[in-house]
Amino acid sequence: MKISNLKKLACITAIVLAPLMVFAGGTNSTSQDKASTGQSNDPDSGSKEGDMGAAGVGQSSKQDSVMVDDATLATNVQNAIKADPNIQNIDIKAKVSKGVVTLTGVASDSRWKARATVVANSVKGVKSVKNNMTIGHK
Predict the structure, then answer these.
(1) Domain 62-135 has CATH 3.40.50.300
(2) What integer pLDDT is reported at residue 37 of this predicted model?
């Protein structure tokens, strides 16, 4: 085969395979079922070491507005809280009204109260979070 024919073959192969790679999500696609909690396990490039993920729990921005009924949203927030190893053992209640989450419970430290806000706010469909948790011991 001539070199020009090899170049053509390589180009044709690239043209055919490129859309397939995009459609398949790239070479290292690791998508997981996120429907149960509304959370993503993708790393949050905006958070820095030691800030407990204050930029979010790896969720996409709130720009992609999602309409979720309040009961489902409350369940998704509770599931997200129970899935977070930092706050899963705190008795946190989440009530939702028109997409606004109200958290109640007792946290032993202000950072766990703040973490609960971050986790709740990261769930798709949450418009805002009102944290009424108290600091102290049960």
Answers:
(1) no
(2) 46
- pLDDT tens profile 41-77: 444 444 444 445 444 444 444 445 567 899 999 999 9
Return d(Cα 110, Cα 105) in angstroms, integer.
12
Provide DSSP, 39-102: ---S--TT--TTSTTTT-SSPPPTTS-----HHHHHHHHHHHHHH-TTTTTS-EEEEEETTEEE
30 HSE (CA, 13 A, CB side): 5
Boundaries of every domain in the chain: 62-135
* Tokens at 60, concatenated: 């996409």
